[in-house]
Amino acid sequence: MAQHVDPNRWRGTVRGRLLVVALLFLAWVVAIEARLVVVQVIQRDRWVHKANNQQLRKVTIPARRGEIVDRNGVLLATSVELPSLAVDPRLALDPKLDRDPKLARDPKAAVADLCAALGDCSPQEVQGLLAKFDPEQRYLLVRERITPKQAARLGERYEKGKLKGKLKLPWVDLSTRPWRFYPNRELAAHVLGTVDIDGRGIAGVELRYDKEYLRGRDGSQVVLQTQGGVALQREGAPPTAGNTLELTIDKYLQFEAEAALREAVATHQAAAGCALVIASRSGEILALANVPTFNPNIPFGQASDEQKRNRVVQDAYEPGSTFKVVTATAALEQKVIRPDDIVNTGNGRTRIGNHTVSDTHAHGAMTFREVITKSSNIGAAIVGERLGRDRLGRYVISLGFGKKLLPDVGGESTGWVGSPTTWRDDTVQTVAYGYGVSATPLQLAAALNAVANGGELVRPRLLRAVIQGDSRTLVARDVIRRAMAPETAAQLTDILEGVTVEGGTATTAAIDGYTVAGKTGTAQKIINGQYSASNHRGSFIGFVPSRDPVVTILVMLDNPHGRGYYGGVVAAPAFKRIAEAALRRLAVAPTINPIPPVLVERQAPHQVLPVMGPVQPLTIVPARPLGQGELLLPELHGMSGRAAVLALSRLGLEARVTGDGVVTAQEPAAGTPMEPGSSCRLWLTRIVPNPPPGPRP
At what angle do helices 251-267 and 572-585 cross, to 10 degrees? Predict the structure, then answer.
C-alpha cells in the first residue's frame, strides 16, 4: 500500500530553514551593532585618535620675530626665510609608497635616499638620523637650515615625481623657516645679544624683550591629508608678528666706538676693554662696545666666555681715581672744602690703617682743585676723612652705586658698596680715592653724567621706541633723583675741565675747539689676594662740550701692558677719537672760538630786497631713472653741518662729516639716486665773513 505524502510538508521545512536564516541574520545584525557600539562608543577615542593621526597633521606656523633697528631706522637684526628640512618617518617606512617594499621598510635606505639629495651628510649625521628614525613618529627635524641648492634638489625630487627610477618623496617636508640674521656681524653684539636654535632670545636685548615685544604669537594650521601625504585642506589661525624695537644706538657712532676701542686695546696690548657713549641729557646710550666680542650669526655656544662678557654692565671692580668725582661732589655739596682751599699732601706717601697710600709725585701743599686735576690719592683721603662715613656714603648711594641702572639687558652687576654705616675710618679714606668699593663702567659713567646734567641722575637706556604697525611708542627720559645741586655740578664741571688742560692728567683727551671735562682712573687689580704692581685698569670718563654737554663717554682698558697703563695714557686718546666722531655726527658747533654769526638786517628798507642779478630756479635732475625705493640726493652746499645732517637723516641717509662749519663739498653729487640707509660724505669749512671797512679797535 503506497505511503501518503503530505503536500504541505515542504512548507514546514522551508519555515524552519527561514527561521534559521533569520536567526543567523539577526545574530549577524546584532554582532554588527555590537561591533559598532564597541567601535563608536567604547573604543571611540582610540579610533578617532588613529584616524586623526593618519589624516590630520597639526603644523605650528612660527611668528615672524620683530626687527631691531638703530635710532635712525638702520637695520640691526631681522629674520630671514631660509629652507629647513624635516621628514615623516611613518610615511618614509610605509611599503605602499614605494615599489620596493624592502627599500621602503628599511630606515637605512630612507636615510640614504635623503642624504643623497643633501649631498653633504657626515657619518655622524647619518648615525644620528638613524637613531632618531622612529616609525611611530610623524615629524623629525633633519636640519634647521639647508642651502638653496639643496632645497632645489629636494624640491625637484618632491615635485617632479620620478628621479633616477625612484618615486617622489611624499615623506619629505621642505619648508621655509624664519632665521635670525644680523647684517652688521659683530657690530653692537653685546647690545643685541642673540637667539637660540628655536629663535628665542638668550642674550642682550633679544633676551630682555623676547616675550614682551619681539617674539610675537605663533599661528597654527591643521592639514587634512591623504594616506600618501598629499594635503587636501588647510585650516588654522595666522601668526602675529613681533614688534620692531628702535634702539638708542647710533650705528655710525657704534662703529666709531668699536674701531677706537679695538685700536686702543691693540696699541696698549690690553687683555680687554669697553667703551660707552651716552647722550648726556636723555640718558640714551648711543654706543656700547666691548673687546673681545662675538658674531651673533654664529651659534652662541661657540663664543668664549670672554667674548660673551658685556664688561660695561658685568665688570664690577675697584674704580680708582674716577671715583674721586663722588668724593668731590660730597665735599663741595656739604661745603667741607672749597675749590681753592689748600690741602697738604706732604711728601707723597702716607699710612692709612694697614695700607701705604702714595701719589705719583710729591705735590706738597695743593688746592682742592689740584687734588682732582692732578689726581692726588692722599688729598682725596684727607677730604674723605673730613666728610666722614655718613656724608660720603650718602652721596655714594645717591649717585647710583650699589644698584642696577640699565633695564634693557640682563646680567648687570650691582657692584658693591656695603653699608656705609659699617665702614671703618680707614675704609672711608680708601673709598674716597676709589678703593674698598666696586662699581661697573655703566655706574661710573652715569654718576659723571649727573654732573653733566646739572645734578640730575638720569637712568641710562637702550630702548628708544616700540613700533607696532603704524604706532610708535617712545620711551620717556627717566630721572632717578637729584643727586646734587646745580651749583655743585657747575663747580665740579669747572674743576674737571682742568683735567684735560696743561697740568692735568688727561691732556690727550683735549679736543680743539671744545671744552672737555673729565676724570682719569688707574686702579690696581687684585691678583691672588694682593694688589698687583703690574696689573691695572686704566680709564677715562668725560663729557663734551663741558658747558653744554651733548655726550658723556667712558673708555676702560683692562690690563694694558704696552706704552703705559695710566688712564690718561691708554684711555684718554680713545675717548678723544670717539668724542670727535660724536661731535661730527651730531653737528655740534665749536665752543672755543666759535664761528662768528652772520648778521643781516631784520627788515629790508621799504620791504624790498636787493637783487644782485637774475635768479634761476635750481632743478635737480636724476643722473639716471630712479629705481624702486630710491630717492634723489639733495643739494647740500652752503648748509650748516647740523642742517645737512638733519636733512639726510629725514631721508633715511647717513652722513659722514669731515671738518666743521658749512658744507663746501659732498659726495655723491646732488641728483644721485640713493637707496635708504646709504651714506653721503660731507666736507665742512668755516666761513669767516670779511671785516667791515674802517679802523679796527
Answer: 160
Q: What share of the chain is helix, strand, coil (3-state, %, to 5)?
A: 35, 25, 40
Provide the greatest CA pair distance for the chain. Answer: 176
Residue where one domain finishes, among candidates 192, 212, 246: 246
Q: Does a structural domain hold residue 121?
A: yes
CATH number where 654 lies? 3.30.10.20
Same domain, 547 and 508: yes
Look-up of cell digits 562608543:
41
Q: Say if residue 577 is in the same domain as residue 540.
A: yes
Phi, psi of 424, rounded to the nearest 5 degrees: -75, 170
Give tens-digit pLDDT for 452-482: 999 999 999 999 999 998 899 999 999 999 9
Q: Does residue 649 carry a catalytic annotation?
A: no
C-alpha cell at 637: 652746499
Length in residues, the chain: 697
pTM of the predicted model, to two decimals?
A: 0.74
For residues 514 and 645, membership in a common domain is answered with no
Distance CA 514, CA 542 (A): 12
Cis preceding-peptide flag for 692 (omega within 30 of 0): no
573 shares its domain with 654:
no
| pLDDT, tens digit, 9 for 90 and up, residues 302-328 | 999 999 999 999 999 999 999 999 999
541 compared with 37, residue with greater pLDDT: 541
User: Which among 79, 84, 282, 321 is annotated as catalytic?
Assistant: 321
* Cα separations in angstroms, 332 against 305, 390, 660: 42, 15, 37
Residues 6 or more apart from 317 whose CB is under 8 A from it? 438, 439, 523, 525, 537
Q: Which of 246, 267, 282 finishes a domain?
A: 246
